[in-house]
Amino acid sequence: MEAAEEAPLVALPQSPELSSGPGDISPCDLTILHFNDVYDVDPSPEEPVGGAARFATAVKKFDFLNPLLIFSGDCLNPSVLSTITKGKHMIPILNELGVHFAVFGNHEFDFGVDILEEYMKQMHFTWFLSNVYDRFTSEPLGHGTVKKIIHWNNIKIGLMGLVEEDWLDTLATVNKSNVNYKDYVEVANEIAIELREEGADLVIAMTHMKWGNDTRLAQRAEGINLILGGHDHDYGIRKVNETWIVKSGSDFKTLTKIDIRLFGASFQYVFEKVDILSYLEEDSHIKAIVKDFTQNIQYMLEEVLCPIDMELDGREITVRRSESNLGNLITNAMLEATRADVALLNSGTLRSDRIHPVGNFTLHDLLAVLPIVDPVLVVRVTGAQLLEALENGVYKYPALDGRFPQVAGIQFGFDPDAEPGHRIIRDTVKVQGQYLQKKKIYLLAIKEYIANGKDGYSMLKSCPRMFDTETAQVLSTVVMNHFESIKILQGRKKCLSGHRMSLITTTSKSPSLTAFEEESNKPSSIIAVPGIEGRICHISQDMKEHLHQLRTERKQGLTTFPTISDNTSENSDSD
């Protein structure tokens, strides 16, 4: 894909004082209200405070203009409330706002295609997706609409919905091999011609992709008047060639009012940025919807995610000093969701500080373990950087420090008595069953917190990211999807869309995940909780001497090495 040149942002008028009638508004042929990427329904402390209830007040003040309300994707996740409701609270909110048309964002798929399609039946508006097709059904993914012509204020408007290929790689609940992606420029040109032939006066592309791709679309596609975009959270308006691109911020804090006047065969556009400020009253209907969901949180927290057949050890004394089955469970889920080579989680993430008993593991239990909305990123690291990260992880051992790593896709041994910074025994480090190579590039799944160099992981701060935070899955959602996959494999839940099983098709060869692959046709054998697998080991003095001897012999032609589960090593779980 060629990089697009960035067009300058267009300066906009300040947020207008919202009137309640037509007195101060000059006539126009069409008004469009646009917004995108809404996650938190509650207001923030700073202006513009936003919040769904005040946003509704702002939208409804323009009702006398008969506006077309368009949403450019991302509403079901991520937020704390979305983790609890699986985004269901957004259904009545968007319905009450009066959304007319929308394009799918990547986070619409966070809880799976089945749930998305179930929600769509309850939504009073049409979702679009024009350039991604489901290989199972040969229909657009999520059964989105490809194109549509509507009549609004005597103007024939053609609509399409386009997304970029990049975020398909990040969908935890959809395997890219199960969809057919078509380049958005090619599809846009085809659909624009069809819409014009069908009599469209105005052609609008609703998109959910980055500025660079929207710019490329405007440069390469013909016949599109407006690109109403999402995915980026920064507000901006640009004109590229004869096409306007609009991005309207995020989190119900801003919307864009677009007044369109028809002059013969051409249009004139007037854009206004509307900030959702604290002086606006909260809409009573939206406020009641939010209150209803928040009052029922305790009931929703009792949802059983998965029965577990062994205790999960989340005690600080365990997770901050040794391998734990809770850490193995969560890092396994990270590997599944990201398809990385290695997953590394700082143990300070795990907050429950208790043993979770055998029985039903609930949403309340999960949020006790993972109370923070943590995006999971994938970065490119060298083997040398990965070694440095492991050294940092055990640097403060035996202190109960949050940097201690829980891992998947990798196993290593360390000498707790060695000088900090020199504790990892290199000859014990294996990635996906193969000895680590310092110059090789690996894909590492980590939290954004670690990617930003926190907890001493400064060596990861400059590592190239495979995708950005706006595209990332939230860690708690990743674990929820892991449990959903297990229930499907155990035969306790049906997958109507076929897009859940792909979660288990992972390249990881850690024992518990390999068991998924080998036993996928034996539902009763699938277990929810991995055991202690020797991913992290304390290396004894005898073992170090043995490894040193083998290293010397290797230089003379020896090519085999002992595994780190050798009887002379000490598994960290016993510590």
UniProtKB/TrEMBL annotation:
GO BP: nucleotide catabolic process
Keywords: Hydrolase, Nucleotide-binding, Signal
Record-linked InterPro entries: 5'-Nucleotdase_C, 5'-Nucleotdase_C_sf, 5_nucleotidase/apyrase, Calcineurin-like_PHP, CG11883_N, Metallo-depent_PP-like
Keyword Signal attached: yes
Keyword Amino-acid biosynthesis appears in the UniProt entry: no
Stretches assigned to the 5'-Nucleotidase C-terminal domain: 315-461
Residue ranges occupied by any Calcineurin-like phosphoesterase domain in the UniProt entry: 31-235
Molecular function terms, GO-annotated: hydrolase activity; nucleotide binding
Polar residues compositional bias, start-end: 557-575
Region (Disordered): 1-21, 553-575
Similarity comment: Belongs to the 5'-nucleotidase family.
Name the record gives this protein: Ecto-5'-nucleotidase
